[in-house]
Design brief:
With about 260 residues, the protein is of the alpha+beta class. It has 8 helices and 7 strands. It has 3 domains: about 100 residues, Serine Threonine Protein Phosphatase 5, Tetratricopeptide repeat (Alpha Horseshoe), CATH 1.25.40.10; about 80 residues; about 60 residues, SH3 Domains (SH3 type barrels, Roll). The chain is about 60% helix and about 15% strand.
Length: about 260
């Protein structure tokens, strides 16, 4: 038996696998670039088709959602534009371009709903949910606790009065940072778990009092409006507006995120 024969076979298989993977990656990159080119040529519907095809293969990214949102905005599909901007913002909440385009799209919506909640509290919740990663807060809490304990040891074992005083004060401050990071992390995690949103995709929909077609209509909403999702069934969502109004809407008329 020739041992080199098996080795050569394995090498050939590895090379073929690398070629196949490289070809797949290249094809995906070429598809993305073709969509960008179509957008620059103002062929927005063709670009939408390609972007949706890429996303259907679970190749999501903030750039994909952002570009798709731009295409929908150019074709006056406001609900889908805002929905994709929101998905992009969820993946990359600090991107200024996403924020700007989302604000532009939101300014075009028909429904202007007053926020029943205190403005400061609402902004605080929104900021924590969007801009504070639970992972980063966890690391901050760990490091601040280590620093606090190290400074406490300095306070205990140091013979210098100045170092004792400085170590004690710094240890207390570090421990306060630890407590704040823990509380923010806990609040952010609960907020992200409990809060789900949706964007109205249809031009206009009726909000029902109960989750069935026979129930009365309470009010109407238009595309692009953002709502909180309280509960859901197979075909219906129980939604709530910022002004406190609630109702039921068919799940196929909104985009969840």
């Amino acid at each position: 038996m020739n041992p080199f024969k098996n080795l050569n076979t394995k090498i050939v298989k590895l090379v073929l696998l690398l070629i196949a993977v490289s070809a797949k990656v290249f094809a995906q990159g070429e598809t993305y670039e073709s969509a960008v080119k179509l957008y620059s040529q103002k062929k927005f519907n063709e670009a939408i088709s390609i972007y949706e095809q890429i996303l259907s293969k679970n190749k999501e990214s903030d750039k994909l959602y952002f570009n798709l949102g731009n295409c929908y905005l150019k074709t006056n599909q406001l609900g889908k534009a805002i929905y994709n901007y929101e998905l992009a913002a969820k993946l990359n909440p600090k991107d200024d371009d996403i924020k700007v385009n989302l604000n532009i799209a939101n300014s075009k919506t028909i429904d202007k709903i007053d926020n029943k909640e205190n403005y400061f509290i609402g902004e605080l919740k929104s900021s924590i949910a969007k801009y504070y990663s639970t992972t980063s807060l966890a690391w901050i809490s760990i490091f601040s606790l280590i620093i606090s304990l190290s400074l406490l040891l300095l306070f205990i074992f140091s013979k210098s009065v100045l170092l004792k005083r400085g170590g004690f004060i710094a240890s207390i401050l570090s421990f306060c940072v630890f407590v704040c990071a823990m509380l923010l992390g806990y609040f952010s995690l609960n907020l992200k778990k409990q809060t789900h949103f949706a964007i109205i995709l249809s031009h206009e929909i009726k909000i029902h009092a109960e989750p069935n077609d026979l129930s009365g209509s309470k009010f109407s909403l238009h595309e692009g409006t953002k709502v909180s999702v309280l509960n859901q069934t197979d075909k219906w969502l129980n939604i709530k507006l910022e002004n406190g109004n609630e109702g039921w809407v068919k799940s196929n008329s909104v985009g969840l995120f």
